[in-house]
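Hi Q.,

Before the meeting this afternoon, I wanted you to have the magnesium ion prediction in hand. No need to reply - just skim if you have a minute. The sequence and ligand are here:
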Amino acid sequence: MAAHDPVEQKYVYDFAEGNKDLKDLLGGKGANLAEMTNLGLPVPPGFTITTEACKAYLTTGREPDGLAAQIEAHLESLEREMGRRLGDPDDPLLVSVRSGAKFSMPGMMETVLNVGLNDRSVVGLSNQAGGNDRFAWDSYRRLIQMFGKTVCEVPGEEFEHALDEIKRAKGTHNDLDLDADDLRGLVDAYKQIFAKHTGREFPQEPREQLDLAIRAVFDSWNAERAILYRRQERIPADLGTAVNVVTMVFGNLGPDSGTGVAFTRDPGSGAQGIYGDYLANAQGEDVVAGIRNTVPLQELEQLDKTSYDELLGIMARLEEHYKDLCDIEFTIERGKLWMLQTRVGKRTAAAAFVIAGQLVDEGLIDLDEALHRVNGAQLAQLMFPRFQLDHEFEPVAKGIGASPGAASGKVVFTSARAVELAAEGESVILVRRETNPDDLNGMIAAKGILTSRGGKTSHAAVVARGMGKTCVSGADELEVNVPAKKFTVGDHVVNEGDVVSIDGTTGKVYLGEVPVMPSEVVQYFEGELDPENTDDALVRSVHRIMTHADAARRLRVRTNADTGADAARARRFGAEGIGLCRTEHMFLGDRRELVERLILASGEREREDALAALLPLQRADFIEIFREMDGLPVTVRLIDPPLHEFLPPLEQLAVNVAVAQERGEDVAKEEALLAAVRRMHEENPMLGLRGVRLGLVIPGLFAMQVRAIAEAAVAVVRDGGKACPEIMVPLVGAVQELETVRAEAERIIAEVVGDSGVEVLIGTMIEVPRAALTAGQIAEAAEFFSFGTNDLTQMGWGFSRDDVEGAFFWRYLELGIFGISPFESIDTDGVGRLVRIAAEEGRAARPGLKLGVCGEHGGDPDSVHFFHEVGLDYVSCSPFRVPVARLEAGRASITTTGSDSR
Ligand code: PEP
Ligand code: MG
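Predicted structure with the ligand bound:
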């Protein structure tokens, strides 16, 4: 401990006092400099001012009591250690003042180098550098420039202009052509600029320079760009930054000096080997500014073998110590190597998997830790085809990345045209203002879907994600004109047949064809690549980590699928059942007309005819799915469409009738239809006659479905197969609704299954807040609950799921009301609380109650952790998200058994 009053809070830590686990207090940079110091690596001596000091300063607007004295004490001991004093005219100590928050925020906050230089110590610096005046004056002008800009808000361009001016006078473009006299002149010019803008002389007192620089770093925590970056990266706003005061070392003292950055493995591919860049006779900011071209680090071996060997030794040591890929910054000052920074390095998704696998092979980490080091978002990224982008391609619009992937194809504006062109072997992109259930065939036929309206839970987005199809929604710069078969964006007009490319991850839209590469990870999940027999390191590592996740996880993973093909794919991806088969998707196309007849039926006879026609079709649907799932549980949800999806559009119908009347045609039938559609019209269809309400209002509808399910199961079993149906009732808000449906369903099931041995469970969705709050009662009539978190979010927040994301979420995100759409990742405090209450009260009323989730959140990494923690039995998600959910369920299990948090 430093020598100060023991009751006073400690705000300053010598590097020797910290370690890598103190990131909260010392920031990432400070904690790792301390760690390297304690490992005995060559770190320039220095100290760190804590994030606590920063927080105190930011709340009160002044440095906390005791900070100044603690800085003084540490500065004195640094001066003693170095044998130099700050500002000494003969042999000055210079320091850098660097920001360093807990989470890296590259380039967002401030740094000031060469603190301690003034009109007198510049001479001393020249002496230290063996009479190198040029170097000393160059260092001084850099201090005035950085200090002026970052501490005193002097416009940076003024310094740039002065530098350009002097180079022009000298007839050069190269800074290195300026000699000591030129730089001395530049210092004078800089001082004048400084005085003009600040109304004072450049401070000559080194301690004042230091204090002002520290304060500027504190303040930079709340700079606009830092605030924006934090919002973007979901970094809490109240962490504050630490400040590192580090002895300056110089890479610009001649050809035997230099600076570089390096990675202990390739952060792009994960391949083993040293990756880095080196720049001789330069300081770090020259590398960043790109003033001269760097050379590959390997060339340092020729320039300075001793330093190179030492550096390689240190990098190996750091990897072994951190047990991970490290990135480092270093400087060589006249043949002496100094480590300026290290941290566990950022990497691509592919590199994350490859490196985790390598580290297991090298015995540095175990499989639990490997699983902890990767995540579902990375896996998801690896599962989509990607564009091979280079600078030739400029996006023309940006919408919402609604379903990831990359797709190119000819633009079509109708579902029918999409089907037609696809049948001719063309790749097509279906472009609509928004999609509706009638577009389903076109969506299936298209390579990708692009809409100008709608958010991440719009129809287009949900259906596309379900199919694993690329979709960009809400690209509102597009003026889509379906009748004219064209869209305009900016100055461009895109006609049917023109080629566009869409990136469902970034939401970007490109004109023309951008080349696409398939995902080898999907090829592996599809069984097309044998993980035991491939030289693809990524596939081998994904296989190994997935196998471990499956062994570790407690949550089961099911899929949302309504067709045999989706069910089959989901099984290949590892699904252990179907958690949601949405039957309304089975009533589209040709069957739509039957449903319309059913809903609008004027008499019992008409209704019964429609139901009788639907029964065999439904039975065949279920037989296909049960066969595909071969005895795995299949949750079939009884029909739940908002009514308007099945009725002809009111306005269109009214116009048709009026036009026909005008022409004097016989419109009695159409008029009756119009009257019926008017009668059933709803202002808020999502809150209207749907789900269980429809089942209770239209006699025979649910009964037909229950019969079809039971008959299909019996047919499969009698055929020697296995079937495990679970019937799920949607939109229940009161136990009485469920009891009514249940009584009828039980009667039909008993009649159909007879002695076939088929067992059918009956349960409910929990997707209306009232159901969650009365879960104890509802559990009496349900053998399982499946949380419909899409509707639970819609009704919990009162957000229309079709509208709000595109309409105003941007503002909510900007204001930080939430960091991510609650439709994407579960709002644990509110909607999550409803889930928790229902799970607890449901299980209390019926121990052994099976609990799952089938809303979109079932495949969202963060939400999966929440569902694990709440104690659900399974999550269910679209086929493409099944591997992501398996991985995250595995990670959730290991994180709760002691490993470091995510
Ligand atoms: C839900 O509401 O979460 C759900 C799964 O049902 P749907 O999305 O079909 O309304
Ligand atoms: Mg729902």
